[in-house]
């Protein structure tokens, strides 16, 4: 226990010296999805049979789950791009043969911690069974399963969610809540069509053309920046909650003195583990409950390290 570190003994707010917020390009090409609305692009001839697909879009969100786009056909073909546990999941089926062993379901996973309210770009390029999924600057190349080359979709491809159809696949998936930019489906500028009211959004929810900023935004820290908040005098309760991400195995997350020289509390990372240290100089404190704090932050932190997101290298500590 390192008590008495006077550098940490502060009690006023200070704006961190290296405070950055997520940059959100103020493009005119954005669509905000509220988590309910779905934007369909209906095919002119009710069917779309493609040997080649090129789909591009950018998204930013604070949600870890949500369907970015979806299409399906009565033959069993489907295409779905979604976020699951803050990872990008692309599912494609060019056709399955239910009589034989041929099964076309193909899944590609990309990225992690994508619910960081920063823009991420996605490019899907398919030529027959050859598939490239590019997320930001990293590309995955796969060959789709099965023997079929054509994607056969019926009626529409939807953005921001799956319209309710009564099927279990649609009801178990969350709609996308966040912002998309520059949606292009095989040369069709979906964002532009939506802005010109050429597409009919679903009746539920709202589509808007500027990004809604979330109530909370991440705060970035480097090795020398910090944030100071005033304490609440004459209160017996000390309660704090936050989420964080970092690439660093060691670092001080929080420090506070208790009133009346009772001691202090310190939450830090030590060798990739969260430690809550309470230094009591007098025995006035009767109850200490730290379990939820330690578990909550630890899980997030471990996931960050396991998934090896190198983009965190530049950010240092990040509280969200
Ligand atoms: Ca097919």
UniProtKB/TrEMBL annotation:
Gene3D superfamilies in the record: 2.60.120.200
Domain Laminin G intervals: 30-211
Stretches the record annotates as Disordered: 1-26
One Pfam short name: Laminin_G_2
UniProt key word Zinc-finger: no
Biological-process GO terms, alphabetical: cell adhesion
UniProt KW keywords: Cell adhesion, Glycoprotein, Repeat
SMART domains in the record: LamG
Biased composition (Basic and acidic residues): 1-20
Highest taxon of the lineage: Eukaryota
Protein name (database record): Laminin G domain-containing protein
Species for this entry: Molossus molossus (Pallas' mastiff bat)
